[in-house]
Amino acid sequence: MNAKPRLSTYWVTCADGLETLLQEEIEGLGVQNIEKFPGRLVFKGKLEDAYRICMWSRLASRVLTPIHVHELDFTHDARDVAEELYEGAINFDWSLIFAPQSTFAIRLHVERDIKVNTQFATLRVKDGVVDSFMEAVGKRPSIDIKQPEITLYVLAGKTAHTYCLDLSGDSLHKRGYRHYMTDAPIKENLAAAILQKAKLKERNPDIILDPMCGSGTFIIESLMILTDRAPGLVRRFGFNGWNGHDHELWMSIKGEAAERHKTALAQPLPQFYAFDADWEAVKATKQNIIAAGFESVLDQIKMEERTLADWPDFKAEGKKSFIVTNPPYGERLGDKASNRSLYLGLSALLQKNFPNQYAAVIAAAVEQADVLAFNNPQILRLMNGKLPIYVRFGDIKPATVSRPFLAEWQPQQFEAIEGAEDFTNRLQKNMQALKKWAVKENIYCLRLYDADLPDFNVAVDLYGDRLHVQEYAPPKTIDPEKAKKRFNLALAAIRAVTGLGRDAIFIKTRARQEGKTQYEKQSTASKRFIVQEGKAKILVNLTDYLDTGLFLDHRQMRLRIAAEAKGKHFLNLYSYTSTASLHAALGGAASTTSVDLSNTYLNWSKENFVLNGLTVDHPDEQHQFFSSDCFEWLKEGHEQYDLIFIDPPTFSNSKKFYGTFDVQRDHNSLLKRAMNRLTTGGTLYFSNNYRGFEMDEEVQAMYDVVEISNETIGQDFKRNQKIHRAWKIQHPPV
Question: Where are the coiled-coil regions (predicted)?
Answer without folding.
Answer: none
